[in-house]
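Work Package 3 (structural annotation) set out to generate three-dimensional models for the target panel prioritized at the project kickoff. During this period the team completed the workflow that converts sequence records into discrete structure tokens, so that structures can be stored uniformly alongside our sequence database. As a representative example, we reproduce one entry of 218 residues exactly as it appears in the project archive.
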Amino acid sequence: MTSAIDKKQSDVEATLRAAPVVAVVVIDDLAAAVPMAKALVAGGIPAIEITLRTPVALDAIRAIASEVEGAVVGSGTVLTPSDLKASERAGARFAVSPGATRNLLDAAEASVLPWLPAAATASEAMHLLERGYRFLKFFPAVAAGGIDLLKAWASPLPNIRFCPTGGIRENTAPGFLASPNVVCVGGTWLTPVDAIKAGDWKRVETLARTAAALKPAT
């Protein structure tokens, strides 16, 4: 089972290293999913996390997976094993959770879908490392302690790399990316609600291009 997790963790690593920012998106209008994803990819951000917070989220994943060349679309806010299965059926390439439960850990081991669980404390991170997870989401990043906490973890938890998400903005992302244990950040600022409603895909592409130019420390 460990070797299977290792393979999926390698897939997670490849996704996280594709760009310095993973776009975290809430989709309310299914018609916006494909042009939004095309704008992100055109700007250099291929990893797109569609959060399972709206009725059209799974359909949005399905549409992006089948219609947007170069997109690596995943599901976010995966809370249950059924969420994981539904994401897999929709064509997601990865799944992200705001934490980790015993049921989700068991389901993720049985699933073919690479999974990024989250930790907000050292104990949670250590528990996930014991289960074979070397790449973790740090959530909620700003509220849980931000850059200072990540730097404090760097020495005692040298084998873990994080994708901080939650409260990160364009102007604060560079500080997080400068931490040696950060591989990328997750951000919602690439797809502003007003830009999506207006269909301003050029603005989304421009924001993505700026984000893609950021440099992680590792």
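The mean pLDDT is 97.
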